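Continuing from the previous page...

OK, I double-checked the sequence for Kelch domain containing 3 against my notes and this is the correct one:
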Amino acid sequence: MLRWAVHLEGGPRRVNHAAVAVGHKVYSFGGYCSGEDYETLRQIDVHVFNAVSLRWIKLPPVWTNSRDHVREVPYMRYGHSAVLIDDTVYIWGGRNDTEGACNVLYAFDVNTHKWFTPKVSGMVPGARDGHSACVLGKSMFIFGGYEQLADCFSNDIHKLDTTNMMWTLISAKGTPARWRDFHSATIIGTKMYVFGGRADRFGPFHSNNEIYCNRIKVFDTETNSWLDSPPTPVLPEGRRSHSAFSYNGELYVFGGYNARLNRHFHDLWKFNPVSLSWRKIEPKGKGPCPRRRQCCCRVGDKIILFGGTSPSPEEGMGDEFDLMDHSDLYILDFSPSLKTLCKLAVIQYSLDQSCLPHDIRYCVPCREVIPRVLPVLGVLQPWLRAAWGLLWHCAASGRAGLETTAEADVQWSCSSPGHCVRAFSQCIPLVCYRWELSAMTTNSTISRPIVSSQG
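Thanks. Re-ran it with the corrected sequence; updated structure tokens here:
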């Protein structure tokens, strides 16, 4: 049951940033925000989101004691890429309005939080932004982007082998994908699936005749060949600055922007690489507003989506210049637990919290998150009574230090709803108070998880 399960506010306000998932954490690098000073050259900032505690932190800047050390830390930028190989994040490309585009490879150790610049060889790609980067094994593949020196879109594929730090320009066979930037490239198996992006009708040079391709282009990394994909009857609209990720061997695309249609998107599409077919997906819950330039990372069965920009509400859905940058975060859950589903059911029915102990109600400022208990539980439907009971059972088991499983939760039932309410009132800090307070950020900005309740 695919569902938008969590909505947080108060995180870093970022656009055109880059992020990777490392275990249960998401590392976000750089980007920009309207109104901030980008004329002064400074280090790239790093924010870390903990998907368990639902907290953001900002890593302190790196102290640099020499000119050479300064060169090892990337400057603040946007339109760059970030990939994770082993315990190292590789940052490449991107641009800054002061320094322009960059083609230096930077590396960030997730264990020590130290930056370094690996010594590379081979044919280094030209400086660019708006490219894509994806990983297969120990290699990073760079495709497309807008090259600064040539002042044009690219459709080259470059490969970095991190075992020897050698760059290679791949001589690809077949009909290549069009020159483009701000597209997505996703590895599934040994193939790279390229979707969307901004191109020009007349070729690699930008003539303000933009086109937005909505056909998938497939690159086989084993044969270094572009493969032809047959047309399909159902296709998403072409777009740029969207998000793409893979789950269970299928490709998902969210959001983006099409300048020809003057439209931002917040739709979710799934592409099956076996049947070569698209299908629009409608998750439960209230999802993000239409946007582009956001980041999206997968943590287990959850997709963490945050940031980006949207047209201001009074300007409609497409205005290019009057945009509103976001500091929010959404979690799309492919496999929500019974506990999560029961929380959502309780919240949806706006249960009263007046019978809860005073100290608990005092510590719970957000009524959107904490369920409220009806004085007379008997008026609830049986499955809602079971939801209360199940939440109490999970909380009590957690208090006792027990590991609750979905199977055990299903087999457990409550024969005394009144007892469950009293017991749940005692245990509610475990399931709700911790859920509420865990989202405080280190800079005193409260980032509360607002659990979606709309279907």
